[in-house]
């Protein structure tokens, strides 16, 4: 069961499908046209941020790369910090690393080892929930910092790929649009 709204938001028309990207058989949900339209981009960010208003948050954790865009905008909207979770080799200094599997490859992500103080309250943000590998890896990774993850949010969930089943049932997972 998802918590996506029943009505399709106006900004949803800005999303486009790209077949066979990044490899044959994958139908990629491209959010770039949404990002290029100021009013609809703002509307999507406001909807995502509204899920967290009134909760004590210290930071938004955004997953590379489109989770950076959404997460940073949400952090600004909510008046909290932003912490990037990056692909390997992109962060200077001491990092923590987590490996994971996607529907079409394996990968790993990293975060600065001193990105957040122990006990900080964070929400994890990404653009699309597919198989759940990236979101699950980000959850494991940031927990190793000693923070409290209060939940996660994604703009789009691809329901048929089962990613929600890989998320911890007792943590909120907010989705704005389900395909």
From TrEMBL:
Keyword annotations of the record: Cytoplasm, Glycosyltransferase, Purine salvage, Transferase
Q: Does the keyword Secreted apply?
A: no
According to its UniProt record, the EC number is 2.4.2.7
**One Gene Ontology MF term:** adenine phosphoribosyltransferase activity
Looking up InterPro entries in the UniProt record yields:
Ade_phspho_trans, Adenine_PRTase, PRTase-like, PRTase_dom
Q: Does the keyword Cytoplasm apply?
A: yes
* Major location (coarse): cytoplasm
Q: The organism sits in which domain of life?
A: Bacteria
Tell me which SUPFAM superfamilies the record gives: PRTase-like (SSF53271)
Write down the top EC class of this protein: transferase
Recorded catalytic reaction(s): these are: AMP + diphosphate = 5-phospho-alpha-D-ribose 1-diphosphate + adenine
Pathway(s) the chain acts in: Purine metabolism; AMP biosynthesis via salvage pathway; AMP from adenine: step 1/1
The record's listing under Pfam families reads:
Pribosyltran
Q: Where found in the cell?
A: Cytoplasm
* Span of domain Phosphoribosyltransferase: 54-168
Q: How does it assemble?
A: Homodimer.
Q: Per its database record, what is this protein's job?
A: Catalyzes a salvage reaction resulting in the formation of AMP, that is energically less costly than de novo synthesis.
Give the protein family. Belongs to the purine/pyrimidine phosphoribosyltransferase family.
Q: Which HAMAP family match?
A: Aden_phosphoribosyltr
Q: Which NCBIfam families match?
A: apt, PRK02304.1-3, PRK02304.1-5
User: Which protein is depicted?
Assistant: Adenine phosphoribosyltransferase
- Species of the source: Stenotrophomonas cyclobalanopsidis
Q: What taxonomic ancestry is recorded? A: Bacteria, Pseudomonadati, Pseudomonadota, Gammaproteobacteria, Lysobacterales
Gene encoding the protein: apt
């Amino acid at each position: 069961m998802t918590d996506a709204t029943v009505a399709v938001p106006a900004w949803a028309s800005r999303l486009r499908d790209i077949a066979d990207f990044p490899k044959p058989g994958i139908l990629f949900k491209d959010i770039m046209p949404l990002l290029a339209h100021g009013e609809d981009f703002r509307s999507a960010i406001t909807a995502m941020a509204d899920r967290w208003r009134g909760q004590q948050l210290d930071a938004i954790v955004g997953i590379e790369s489109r989770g950076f865009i959404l997460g940073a905008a949400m952090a600004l909207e909510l008046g909290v910090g932003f912490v990037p979770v990056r692909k390997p080799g992109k962060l200077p200094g001491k990092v923590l690393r987590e490996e994971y599997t996607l529907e079409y490859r394996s990968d790993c992500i990293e975060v600065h080892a001193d990105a957040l103080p122990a006990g900080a309250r964070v929400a994890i943000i990404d653009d699309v929930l597919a198989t759940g590998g990236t979101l699950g890896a980000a959850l494991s990774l940031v927990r190793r910092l000693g923070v409290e993850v209060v939940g996660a949010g994604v703009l789009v969930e691809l329901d048929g790929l089962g990613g929600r089943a890989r998320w911890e049932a007792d943590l909120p997972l907010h989705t704005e649009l389900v395909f």
